[in-house]
Design a protein that fits this description.
The complex is a heterodimer of chains A (about 130) and B (about 140). Chain A has about 130 residues and is α+β, with helices and mostly antiparallel strands. Chain A is built from 2 helices and 4 strands; from the N terminus they run αββββα. In chain A, strands 1-2 form a two-stranded antiparallel ribbon. In chain A, helix 1 packs antiparallel against helix 2. Classes of the chains: A alpha+beta (about 130), B mainly alpha (about 140).
């Protein structure tokens, strides 16, 4: 039954979206991680998605990699901090909490949509299996 | 006799096969809703069904090289699916080149699964009709 591959397609999207959720959680958790040395602050991460091609462009989605966000680091004026530079600024992570929240909501909605696709397909397959019974 | 039974179910079988194929295409669109540069795809069910019933299923995926000599390579893709997979025309294309409209895909997906189940019911009833006709009194 060719419909079994829907589980692969939606499953790949579930794992990709949960990876995205993981990255968003990591970014949020490390929003204040300045590190142990000056300039070692956490850099926000982003996931990259790509279509998996299995003939006619149908085949689910794949995470090609997790890249560092290129946004400039935030500088905070904290002259008393041991990590401050000579002008009294501490390099803070370039995590944008608003961006991360939006990313998280988008990932969870996509995840839900794919779960629904799987459920509907499962129902359809169950109904097909019971064809010509009784 | 047996080929008559087969012919009686042929139309619904092709319809179910195409519905399952469309379900796969739509699931792929939903799965790639956040992939940059992904283009949403779909096919025209009516014309695909017409050609599947009249000409048989598409062998190889849509595009094939025509061969004029037995020594030519056939170069057909492996997945036997629909003849003509088309790109959806986006209403509001997004900046990253993705053309998936989630509302539209979800609506089509629900519609397709309902129609699949309708075809299934048709098939069920035609099977029970044939069974009834074969009962000895």
């Amino acid at each position: 039954m060719s419909m079994f591959s829907i589980f692969d397609i939606s499953g790949s999207a579930l794992s990709a979206q949960s990876k995205r959720m993981n990255v968003a959680a990591s970014n949020m958790a490390n929003a204040d991680s300045v590190g142990t040395a000056p300039g070692e602050a956490y850099r926000a991460k982003q996931v990259m998605f790509e279509t998996e091609n299995r003939g006619q462009g149908i085949g689910g989605v794949r995470v090609t990699g997790i890249v560092d966000d290129t946004a400039p680091m935030k500088m905070e004026y904290r002259p008393g901090d041991p990590l401050a530079d000579e002008r009294g600024y501490v390099t803070m992570p370039n995590v944008d909490p608003v961006h991360e929240m939006v990313n998280m909501i988008s990932a969870s909605r996509s995840y839900q949509a794919n779960v629904e696709v799987m459920n509907t397909s499962k129902d359809m397959m169950m109904k097909t299996l019971s064809l010509a019974e009784s | 006799m047996v080929d008559k039974l087969d012919n009686a179910l042929n139309f619904n079988r092709e319809a179910l096969n195409l519905r399952a194929e469309r379900q796969k295409v739509l699931a792929n669109n939903i799965a790639n809703a956040d992939t940059p540069n992904f283009k949403a795809k779909d096919f025209d069910f009516a014309s695909e069904l017409k050609s599947a019933v009249s000409k048989g299923r598409a062998s190889g995926g849509g595009m094939e090289l025509s061969t004029t000599s037995s020594r030519h390579l056939s170069a057909h893709s492996s997945s036997p699916a629909v003849r003509d997979l088309k790109y959806r025309v986006p209403d509001q294309p997004s900046l990253d080149g993705n053309t998936v409209d989630m509302d539209r895909e979800r609506a089509n997906f629900a519609d397709n699964s309902m129609r699949y189940q309708a075809s299934l019911t048709m098939m069920k009833s035609s099977i029970s009709r044939m069974k009834a006709a074969m009962q000895p009194e």
